[in-house]
Amino acid sequence: MRVSTPITAHAPITAHAPVDEAAIKRAIVACGIGQIFEIYDFVIYGLMAGALARAFFPSTDPIAGLLGTFATFAVGFVIRPIGAVVVGSYGDRHGRRAALVVTIGLMAMATGLIGLIPSYATLGVWAPVILVLCRMAQGFSTGGEWGGAAAFLVEYAPAQRRGTISSYQQAATALGLLAATLVAFVLSAAMDSAAFLAWGWRLPFLIGFVLGPVGYYLRTRVEETPAFESTVERQGVSHSPLRQSLTLYPGRMLAAFGLSIIGCVVNYVFVIFVPSFAQQQLHIPASSTFLSTLIAGVVCLVLTPIIGRLSDRIGRRPLFFAASAASVVLAYPLFQVMVTMHSLSGLLLAQSVASVILSLYAGPICAVLAEQFPTNVRYTALSVSYGFAVAIFGGFAPLIATALVRLTGDPVAPAYYLVAAGILSFIATIFVRERAGLPLPDDIATLTPSLLEKPA
Q1: Under 8 Å CB-to-CB from 21, ≥6 apart: which residues?
Q2: Which residues pair with 13 in a beta bridge?
Q3: 239: Cβ–Cβ under 8 A, 6 or more apart, which residues?
Q4: Helices 96-114 and 126-156, interaxial angle, to 10°?
Q5: Alpha-helical segments (H) within 249-374
Q6: Nearest by Cα to 358 from 397, 406, 388, 392
Q7: Shortest CA distance to 441 belongs to which of 363, 385, 365, 382?
Q8: pLDDT, average across residues 56-74
Q9: Which residue in 63, 408, 426, 452 is deepest, having the highest Cβ count within 10 Å?
Q10: CA nearest 212: which of 385, 358, 33?
């Protein structure tokens, strides 16, 4: 049974003409493949953190080198909201497809350059400087990519299937994570440690550069979304989508921001921080940590579309309540399992359970965020809301988790960060409006503004 709350009487809605299945499939493929390459390129940096620390941040203290690498990793997230604002506004004015073509091209170039930067031993301080600039370009691209891909699929989907179809965007994200992890695992297992640290770590970045143009080509061959085309026809395109979003929808943007926190933290703690943590602190071989992350990624990949479909039946909010509560209850036990068992099996158990929690969030997240905003500000509003959550809570998650371990001397300390994230997202879910199965709101000029939406 679908759980939903009617849209306020002040909010006109437009049910667009049905889109044929072939067009929907083309949109899913073009959006999904591009998303795979985008996420692969962005995440491979985190998975190569140990090698990057040695190449660009030489230090006798391995934790200090890792902190330097994760600080640069976080830089990509600092710039991410800027990409959300700039690319999101461009996408709301000129179309989702045009913006997504730009993001994938920029990402491919930045990733390829990372694989070619000489090490600190060769280039000195300029090596980490160039690395930071490339990371900033990656962050800018990803900041505009996620919201555009979410809006793109949601606007193609029929109202009764928005959760299902938009979940493929997150499934593509999981595939990107898997692709990055698989490449990292194969290379670390096939090469001896010295060769991998000397030059083998460069190969994943070069692979990302070579494959990126495939996504670029596919995106130039897909049609613009019916919702945006309708907005253009009605001359409803916003000339200042950021200003209108902040003026009319501060409450919805704040709720969307809070809702996004838990997925960002769970993802970047267990996918990015934990593999390096297991290598450095638990002395588990790199190939084993990548194998565990790979298996956990498969769990998330399989469950995400299932959860997306479930959200079309029971609504989005119950799933976010479940994800937040599970994070609060299970964070400490999961870290305790890893530290106590000190083995691949403990690592795999913790990461797999975390993937189940993540899928509860990943399945409905694109649909629920897109459903909060009208078409002519949707790209900007959801990109900025999500982008700031990722920047503040996700991008700094590996750095904060590493710092917590160092400051407290307690390897279980990162669990407290997960608990805090779960509490914040649980509260935010209370203020998110349930719109599963309802037409998308489509006229920003007549929607009633509010500081904070009342609980649905």
Answers
A1: none
A2: 441
A3: 93
A4: 150
A5: 250-267, 274-280, 286-314, 317-341, 344-370
A6: 397
A7: 382
A8: 67
A9: 426
A10: 33
DSSP secondary structure letter of residue 9: T
Tokens of 425: 């997202």
- Burial level of 445, CB count in 10 A (0-12/13-18/19+)? exposed
Q: Crossing angle of helices 49-56/126-156, nearest 10°?
A: 150
Query: How far is residue 351's CA from residue 143's CA, in Å, rounded to a whole number?
Result: 26
Which structure tokens are listed for 171?
């499934």
pLDDT per position as a tens digit, 143-193: 888 888 888 899 988 889 999 999 998 998 888 888 888 888 888 788 888
Distance, CA of 278 to CA of 258 (rounded, Å): 29
Q: Which amino acid is at 133?
A: L
Comparing CA positions, the residue from 38, 146, 12, 149 lying closest to residue 84 is 146
* Residue-level pLDDT at 374: 92
For 35, residues 6+ apart whose C-beta sits below 8 A from its C-beta are 145, 149, 169, 172, 173, 176, 215
Secondary structure (DSSP) of 65-122: HHHHHHHHHHHHHHSHHHHHHHHHHHHHHH-HHHHHHHHHHHHHHHHHHHTTPPPHHH
Token pair in block for residue 344: 């691949």
- The 10s digit of each residue's pLDDT in 222-279 is 888 888 888 888 877 888 899 999 999 999 999 999 999 999 999 989 988 898 888 8
pTM of the model: 0.81
> What is the DSSP-derived secondary structure letter of residue 435?
-
Question: Residue 435 has which token pair?
Answer: 């719109």
230 CA to centre of own chain: 28
Give the separation between CA 451 and CA 455, rounded to whole angstroms.
13
The span from the CA of 12 to the CA of 355, in Å, is 38
Provide mean pLDDT across the span 200-204: 88
Which of 313, 255, 258, 311 is CA-nearest to residue 433?
255
Distances from the Cα of 81 to the Cα of 35, 39, 69, 140, 144, angstroms? 18, 16, 21, 7, 8
